[in-house]
Amino acid sequence: MIIGYEDKVSEVYMELLPVLSKAPKSGTTAVKVLDCLGIVAFFGATNSEDIQNAMQIIWQFIHADQSDANEEKHSAAVLVAA
């Protein structure tokens, strides 16, 4: 990934974080969302708080299926992406 404008990457991170936190939580879409979150956080996070916010989304995502016994568990591919 080539970054020409570091300020813009941080701006993209800040705008995408809330969107990614509400994305679908199953199937190939979830894998793509988690990959996107990882890339955006790696390149766009400017401090430890930004990284912590991204990690909190992933943590909540992984543990969301444990709160409801009727919900389907995450596939192995989705957990690996997380």
Automatic annotation (TrEMBL):
Q: Which organism is it from?
A: Prunus yedoensis var. nudiflora
What Pfam families does the database record attribute to this sequence? IFRD
Pinpoint the Interferon-related developmental regulator N-terminal domain residues: 3-82
The name under which this protein is listed is Interferon-related developmental regulator N-terminal domain-containing protein
The record's listing under InterPro entries reads: IFRD (IPR039777), Interferon-rel_develop_reg_N (IPR007701)
